[in-house]
Amino acid sequence: MASFPESVNENDIDKAKFIGELLVPMAPFDQKAGREAWTVAFAPDGSYFAWSQGHRIVRLIPWAKCLSSFSVRHGGEVTNPTSPRHLSRQSCKGGSVIPMAGAPPEHTIDCGGIVWGMAFGSSVPEKQSRCINIEWHHFQFGRDQLLLATGLNNGRIKIWDVYTGTLLLNLMDHTDIVRDLTFAPDGSLMLVSASTDKTLRVWDLKDDGNMVKVLWGHPNRVYSSAFSPDSSVLCSVGASKAVLLWNMDKYTLIRKLEGHHNDVVSCEFSPDGALLATASYDTRVIVWDHQRGSILLELGHLFPPPSPIFAGGANDRWVRSVSFCADGRHIASVSDDRLVRFWSIEERAPQAVASLPNGLCCAFSTTGSVLAAGTCDGSVHFWECPRSIASLQHLCRMALRRVKTTQQVEALPVPMPLRDFLTYRVV
């Protein structure tokens, strides 16, 4: 069994550019379970990076400061820390980074339990709470508010102020591990939690964290969830091959997507909202047109492709995580075959690969130029996304798909080849 199809020469695939790592202190007792970096996250404005180091600890580091610790010095000067082209392989032991004058503070947070899920949320004051009957609130989130939500193994969700590191809220309704958290990207501070108790719960942090709705529909554990860019649709994935789409205005189930053969553990929408990527233990990443419920692209991690029976069981190619790049053209995946793959939606084979033993999760930076991946030993590794100039056609397609659904595009009086391009049928 191979990691690439026979038509692809592994030596011809580019090696992704490694730019740095964050390591945790090594000690004999750290070898026990609970040390894993189950989640990594970037703040929406690109100001902070956070990851779970294991043993209840979350580390918050200003992203510019983290990049500065990787930067190459030329002639005694530090190069622009925001340019990944100048990053080098220097590690950041224990998460310590080069101090910068006037920079936001770092924080090390003890969450009181193993952290499985994590998400940043930013507030837009003019975005009103959906709970219209309450006129007084204990918390008044301002324009500059940046929050971090952490989901724990005991079912609790803790909300932290990123700038001060203080605990603001403690949400306690789940009865099992909170595997994933995601904020609505519209600044409403609506939070969705996915849990192994088979439920998704919707919380309104502008209403002091009150729970708005419980979403039932998963037959088994829920592993991950993701909002569409306009916050109108939620995708949730879990055990028993489940991929569910929810209407987040009415909190109703839209449809189930069928195509995976094993547990589905990660999902993410493309920046224009037209595509949905899901990662599964069946050794595949599937790219969907979620508005029609159809499969556009299958990205395999095992060749020849396994039969549904083999894919539905234990194998050494479980795909652990998937993330969409901000350019809308690249996808990253982390698999148990010790590789990180960078895919182009225009190709069937990886554009670049990198070695990553024991990878668990991945996420692109806000700009999409850097991928962060967490591992079983609590460390985080960073690579530069393959760089290329997007075509004008792709940029126009993304602009159109941000405002029009697949059905609306199909109704346009345009030639069939252009319609297929706009609906991503030619990927």
Automatic annotation (TrEMBL):
> What is the species listed in this Swiss-Prot or TrEMBL entry?
Takifugu rubripes
Q: Which Pfam families match?
A: SOCS_box, WD40
Kindly state a single biological-process term from the GO annotations of this entry: protein polyubiquitination
Domain named SOCS box is located at: 386-427
Q: Which SUPFAM superfamilies match?
A: SOCS box-like, WD40 repeat-like
Keyword terms of this UniProt record: Repeat, Ubl conjugation pathway, WD repeat
Keyword Repeat among UniProt keywords: yes
- Keyword Glycoprotein belongs to the record: no
Cite the annotated pathway: Protein modification; protein ubiquitination
**What is the protein name given in its UniProt record?**
WD repeat and SOCS box-containing protein 1
Gene3D superfamilies recorded: SOCS box, YVTN repeat-like/Quinoprotein amine dehydrogenase
Identify the taxonomic lineage of the organism of origin.
Eukaryota, Metazoa, Chordata, Craniata, Vertebrata
Q: Where are the WD repeats?
A: 171-213, 215-256, 257-298, 319-353
